[in-house]
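Tutorial handout. Part one gives the primary structure; part two gives the three-dimensional structure as tokens.
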Amino acid sequence: MKIDCRTSIWNQFGAAIDMLEDAINLCPDHLWTVALWKDPEDERYGQFWFIAYHTLFWLDLFLTGTMEGFKPPQPFIRGKLPEQPYTKEQIITYLSVCRDKCQSALEGLTEERAQQRCGFEWMELSFMELQLYSMRHVQEHAAQLSLVLGQHEVTGMDWIASARSKDA
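Part two.
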């Protein structure tokens, strides 16, 4: 039996992104700024919208593999909070960009790229291990957002076993 690890990894990573997307889409307007936790630096860091943005920012960065020259797409700001929370539509658009970037990166992964070292101040990993680390990060925050929705009696969340096709 021959298994293409790139496809298997994409199917699971894509499912984590899809679960994040479901949580964002299911979030009613009145919960968009609900705090999941209190952040001592700024209360907005613990709010639903920011956790969704934070997850996508790091997904995008980790797919790039370096801080050097990294800049999220407009209207997102690196290194500071916006004056107003990003909208659900802005976040979903960013998610779509990140999802496509992730799928392309994983399906086109070469042995050389997989082994490339990616260094950050706090860790250095191969590009492949960084993507697994990132997948765990996406799933962690998707679960947190889903939990807060469930605590507020929002229904519709479900486990996704494999990445959805673009046509779904």
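Part three, for discussion. The first helix runs from residue 5 to 26. Residues 11-34+43-151 form a domain with the Four Helix Bundle (Hemerythrin (Met), subunit A) fold (CATH 1.20.120.450).
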